[in-house]
């Protein structure tokens, strides 16, 4: 998820729609970046046009954040909030789905702002054992009541 955050910050920082071949992030290859841009587009966080480079490698042009992408990066912008959410998730479940990240980031931000949200606090504070897949296991009542 660190690469997801770094990509969204890089795309947001661009003054105009971006070409994925121009994005350089230390520790990640161009293929890592392009694969994650594809995932970001599938998740609805970025919008762009897939294309192929001269070397016949997938790339993305006209990259920009969607409304959902802006919302996510607004929640994930603070390094302290990001690290706290990562610690909470590692402690509780190990790895987790994107929707869980969004919920935990929102919870941490609300907690820092002193905004009360009882259902989110109850879910975030409940210790859970992670199933073999590493995703958060919800009770039937939690599955029907979304966390904002």
Report on this model:
Helix content is about 55%, strand content about 10%. It is mainly alpha-helical. The protein has two domains: about 1-65, Arc Repressor Mutant, subunit A (Orthogonal Bundle); about 80-125. Strands 1-2 form a two-stranded antiparallel sheet. A hairpin with a 5-residue loop joins strand 1 (about 45-50) and strand 2. Helix 1 packs across helix 3 (about 65-75). The longest helix has 16 residues, at about 100-115. Mean pLDDT is about 80; it is low at about 130-148.
Task: Quickly list its features.
disordered C terminus, mainly alpha, Arc Repressor Mutant, subunit A, 10% strand, 2 strands
Q: How does the SSE layout of this entry go?
A:
Elements: H1 2-13, H2 30-42, E1 46-52, E2 58-65, H3 67-76, H4 79-92, H5 98-113, H6 118-125, H7 140-144
Antiparallel strand pairs: 1-2
Short description, anyone?
The chain is mainly alpha-helical and 148 residues long. It has helices spanning 2-13, 30-42, 67-76, 79-92, 98-113, 118-125, 140-144; strands spanning 46-52, 58-65.
**What is the CATH first-level class name of the largest domain?**
Mainly Alpha
Q: What CATH architecture label of the largest domain applies?
A: Orthogonal Bundle
The helix/strand series, from N terminus to C terminus, equals: HHEEHHHHH
Q: Which descriptor suits the 3D outline?
A: elongated
Q: How many helical stretches?
A: 7
Share of residues in strands: 5-15%
Beta strand count: 2
Helicity level, as a percent range? 40-55%
Mean of all residue-level pLDDT scores: 78
């Amino acid at each position: 998820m660190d690469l997801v955050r770094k990509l969204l910050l890089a795309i947001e920082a661009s003054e105009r729609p971006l070409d994925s071949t121009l994005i350089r992030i230390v520790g990640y290859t161009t293929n890592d970046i392009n694969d994650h841009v594809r995932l970001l587009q599938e998740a609805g966080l970025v919008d762009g046009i897939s294309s192929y480079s001269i070397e016949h490698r997938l790339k993305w042009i006209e990259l920009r954040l969607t409304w959902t992408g802006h919302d996510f990066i607004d929640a994930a912008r603070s390094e302290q909030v990001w690290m706290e959410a990562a610690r909470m998730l590692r402690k509780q479940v190990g790895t987790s789905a994107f929707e869980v990240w969004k919920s935990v980031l929102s919870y941490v931000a609300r907690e820092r702002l002193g905004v009360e949200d009882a259902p989110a606090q109850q879910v975030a504070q409940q210790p859970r054992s992670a199933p073999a897949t590493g995703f958060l296991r919800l009770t039937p009542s939690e599955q029907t009541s979304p966390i904002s």
